[in-house]
Specification:
Blueprint lengths: L1 E4 L4 E5 L5 H11 L9 E5 H14 L3 E6 L6 H9 L3 E4 L2 H9 L7 E3 L6 H9 L4 E4 L2 H10 L4 E5 L7 E3 L9 H13 L3 E6 L4 E3 L3 H19 L6 E3 L14 H15 L7 E4 L3 H4 L3 E16 L6 H4 E9 L8 H5 L6 E3 L9 E7 L8 E9 L6 E4 L20 E7 H13 L16 H5 L9 E2 L5
Parallel strand pairs: 2-20, 3-20, 4-5, 4-13, 5-6, 7-8, 8-10, 10-12, 12-13, 15-17
Antiparallel strand pairs: 1-2, 3-14, 9-11, 14-15, 14-19, 16-19, 17-18, 18-21
Helix pairs in contact: 2-3, 7-8, 8-9
């Protein structure tokens, strides 16, 4: 393994036969005799590439605009920029980040329906024209601050079956949509299309069908009023890991017929989407170290069995928590599952365990109940599928720093990246079979200890 970097990328280059799991083990071994066993990520950029190829195979008509808010790591942004993806930005800072790596304004949509006037002006000065709206007040702001904007009307959806609902905050009803289009006409503002979002963690693909049908109605309203409507944005809600209740292809198999029905390929309508977790969730694995441990004896009266009467539970404290990477438990309703880096012995006894973060807040609980063998301070736990809504929202509460991220990519993945950068994305590229590093659990054969784990979850 060797470290590779140029002005665009900085990652550990995996030689043939090495995987992301090897990097995890290497990093753990490097600090085995040290007291500085800080939490860290290993992120496989090849996995992001693999998702990109899978996207075009499953949704050939839909151009992806990556939702930067999901994970704004510079290496992820650079990778997707090199692959030719577009970007969904929600703020001036995200627009600056994306443009700093050379993304042209035509590949950016300012997909925040409620924008600060100064940030609308920044978008105008930066050449970013596509932006969403869902109210008359927003129309008035854009008319004054960015009269050349190309507006996309965001409509509400039935997101009642999504894990994280968004239509409670954003989106116009069909009735309101007509009024907004009429008002845009009066203000001489250009409306080019319609967008929607079925909610993050969508569990019912039929929600997309109804939303696409509603978008068709709003398109017809716009055309009737004289607008040149040519953009449909179907938002996000696509799963990023294989343990999701609803598989990616289960959703796309429903979306494609709906698009063909309401927006056929000869309609001239450009279709985009805003995938976030889809691209990054499975690419990131987090390694945390046990920094403290507490044994709690459960004294059960009325038992003649001394061992049963003094059974114990274990509390493990690790060096990342809900104020850091595990904020996904609070804000993204995530249920995380620990993997033990050290394989337990076949006859090892299991105990009911809980896992806690390092801060002084009692809220900082990662896993409430999980059967695991007895571990020691200094042992490691791994958490897969930690790329979505984790590092982007992590804080340094109590002075605990965010984990370092170590990026990796295999040789076939890098070669394919180079090909796509030089020649552009071509249909035949998606058919290539590239060997990418497997996830840590697949590669090592380590068992998850979670089938019966109860992840700490709090509704906010």
């Amino acid at each position: 393994m060797s470290s590779f970097s140029d002005e665009e990328f900085n990652f550990t280059y995996l030689d043939e036969g090495f995987t992301a799991k090897d990097i995890l083990d290497q990093k753990i071994n490097e600090v085995s005799s040290s007291d500085d066993k800080d939490a860290f990520y290993v992120a496989d950029l090849g996995d992001v590439l693999k998702k990109h190829l899978r996207w075009y195979k499953a949704l050939p008509r839909v151009f992806p605009f990556y939702a930067v808010k999901c994970n704004d790591s510079i290496a992820v942004v650079k990778t997707l920029a090199a692959l030719g993806a577009g970007f969904d930005c929600a703020s001036k800072t995200e627009i600056q980040l994306v443009q700093s790596v050379g993304v042209p304004p035509e590949r950016i949509i300012y997909a925040n329906p409620c924008k600060q006037v100064s940030q609308i002006k920044h978008a105008a000065n930066s050449g970013v024209q596509m932006m969403t709206f869902d109210s008359e007040v927003e129309l008035m702001k854009v008319a004054r601050a960015h009269p050349k904007a190309k507006l996309v009307l965001r409509i509400a959806t039935d997101d009642s079956k999504a894990v994280c609902r968004l239509s409670v905050k954003f989106g116009a009803t069909l009735k309101t949509s007509r009024l907004l289009l009429e008002r845009a006409k009066e203000l001489d503002i250009n409306v080019i299309g319609v967008s929607f979002h079925v909610g993050s963690g969508c569990t019912d693909p039929e929600t997309f069908v109804q939303a696409i049908s509603d978008a068709r109605c709003v398109f017809d309203m716009g055309i009737e009023l004289g607008f040149n409507m040519y953009l449909l944005d179907i938002g996000g809600g696509f799963p990023g890991s294989e343990d999701a209740k609803l598989k990616f292809e289960e959703i796309t198999n429903v979306i494609n017929p709906a698009l063909d029905k309401y927006f056929p390929s000869d309609s001239g309508v450009r279709i985009i989407a805003e995938p976030g977790r889809y691209y990054v969730a499975s690419a990131f694995t987090l390694a945390v170290n046990i920094i403290a441990k507490k044994v709690v004896i459960k004294e059960q009266t009325g038992s003649d069995d001394e061992e049963e009467a003094n059974d114990k539970t274990l509390m493990y404290y690790v060096n990342d928590g809900v104020y850091g990477s595990f904020n996904c438990i609070l804000y993204d309703h995530a249920h995380v599952k620990p993997i033990l880096q050290k394989r337990p012995k076949p006859d090892e006894k299991y105990y009911s365990c809980s896992i806690w973060g390092p801060t002084c807040d009692g809220l900082d609980r990662i896993v409430e109940r999980c059967p695991m063998p007895e571990l020691q301070v200094g042992d490691w736990m791994l958490f897969e599928n930690m790329g979505a809504y984790t590092v982007a929202a992590a804080s340094t509460f109590n002075g605990f720093q965010r984990p370092t991220i170590h990026y990796v990519m295999s040789r076939p993945a890098w070669q394919l990246m180079e090909q796509i950068k030089e020649q552009g994305f071509q249909a035949e590229v998606e058919e290539q079979d590239i060997t990418l590093p497997q996830s840590c659990a697949w590669e090592s054969g380590i068992e998850h200890y979670p089938a019966a784990c109860a992840s700490a979850s709090i509704n906010v």
